[in-house]
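Subject: mismatched residue count in predicted assembly?

I count 630 residues in my input, but I want to confirm that the predicted structure covers every chain. Input:
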Amino acid sequence: MDLAVVILVEVLYAIASLVLISAGLAVVFGMMKVINLAHGEFMVLGGYTVITAVGLGVNIFVAMLIVAPLVVGLFGLIVERLVFRHLYGRMIDTMLASWGLSLMMIGAFKMIFGNTQTGVTGPIPGLTVGDYQINGYNLFIIVVSLLLLAGMLAVLRGTRAGLIARGTMQRSDMAAAMGHSPDRIYMTTFAVGSALAGLAGAVMAPLVGIVPTAGAGFIAKAFITVIAGGPSLVTGLATASGAFGLVNQAFSFLVSPVIGDVALLVAAVVLLRLMPKGITTRFFRGRL
Amino acid sequence: MRGDARKDTLVVLVLGLAMIFGLPLLIDPHQLTVLVAYGMLALSLGLIWGFGGVLCFGQAAFFGLGAYTFAIAGINIEESTLPLILAVLIPAGFAALMGAFMFYGRLGDVYLAVITLVVSLILFRWLNTTAGQGYEIGAARLGGFNGIPGFPILNVPGRPDLPIWGESLYYVAAFALLIVFLLVSWLLRSSFGRIAIGIRENEERVSLLGYDIRARKTVLFAIGAGIAGLAGALYATWAEVVTPNLFSLQQSSEVIIWCIIGGLGTRFGPILGAAGLAYLKFQLGQQSGIDNMFIMGLVLVIFVLLLPRGLAPEIARFWLWLIGANRRTARRRAPRAGGQNG
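Triage response: the counts match. Full output below for your records.
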């Protein structure tokens, strides 16, 4: 019974971390069709922001939930103006430019923070369930990712800004004809996606130590989750994370964590072969 | 047409031989050997991406597979001729399987890129965990993160006691590159190559003409992987150690950067990009002020923004002028990266 609870929390945590890692990319890639290969480095930037801010004496929750998204969002805004703005609609070129950006960011991290692992301690103590110990921070991540999904759904469906953003992504010429500036909407959307990446990196920072090259570990998972999710942003994110998180944890328990990661990647390749346009083209069609 | 081909071959031979014997005067042959191996790797991606329109993000996987095959087979056979052949055939076979899986599933460009990337990541992760006793192929231990050291290097065929190294390895590698280059040129002139270029330009039209694009793309993909495997074997015999880093994201990214900067849709561009950037990296490695990766990234961003066709179109114009080809072909628009669906 206790073991079942522990396993349930572990599985939920795996799913939640996938949601977190992929949320920013879902906005940038899923909505804007910008393949941002620097997504992992955006997350690492979020992590470093938290570490720096905590070092300066900021409360860790403020640093994670407010400072990091703001900093990374602002960074995304600058990068969008300088680079991505010129490349919309040229998918492969965007991919290559963002790869260059990711290399630059890794290089910059190495120069600024040194090529060593830094981290902050998790602010939440562990819980005891029967004979087992659960990392209390895992529960925090589950809560954050649930709130994130709910928030994204609410913004996209419930607010005027969400409606305009969705409309612009579908037909930017129509949006322009109705008096909205696609240029500005693209800019804002990219900044929001970057901010989400920053949030993810910040929240993950206490769990995984941050090294300059840590982004590579996130990027593959984020991409396959978003691509496997398909066109529906929130539903796709939730279902794909659910499927992959389950596979990952099942194999981690049965064999080893590394095999769990490999199984996740294999599952993704097979899933893409079966449903090349993602889960939500077959199930949950037309949802958000 | 036939005259053009003969002229082209002649110029390639003359220029190639001039470079093979001229460059060691300028650059240390030991360094040149690895530049040649990288050049061949870039040529392989240049073939499938620049001419076939297949953007493979995991070309390094075939490079690494070739290197590992050479090392493992070398330890087991203790002679290097068969391992060298296997180092071409095994990556090609693996790519044929992967290609069949992807192309027959009619995956789009982006998904293709992601799947190839993921496959090389899987190999990278898995090889890093093979440190234990249980992971052996014949007499070769995979060795996990440390890789496989101490396998027999390239030798004169049939004479394991006569290893090829140092300057002579450079000449073997350089002639191998020249031969591969000529074979690639021949392939591109053949009807197979022409149809491959047709597929890059307009997949739908070519398939409506009755060609089986899935099979053709798979074969082209396998050929590219075979060349990458040969490059891997040359690298392995140069480095005398193979590690999982050959499969890493950085290695894959570098190949793509070489192609972009050298120029897609040309045969020589990727080689130029590879040799030039790898040489630049050697030079940068000797200074410590600015991180290497930062400069590489900056170069890539600037090229994508300002010079997306790369350096080769400029050089190609000179080339065509040299062989006296029709001026109009020189000014024809170079293909966009990534083909139609991008």
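The mean pLDDT of chain A is 87. Marking this ticket as 'not a bug'.
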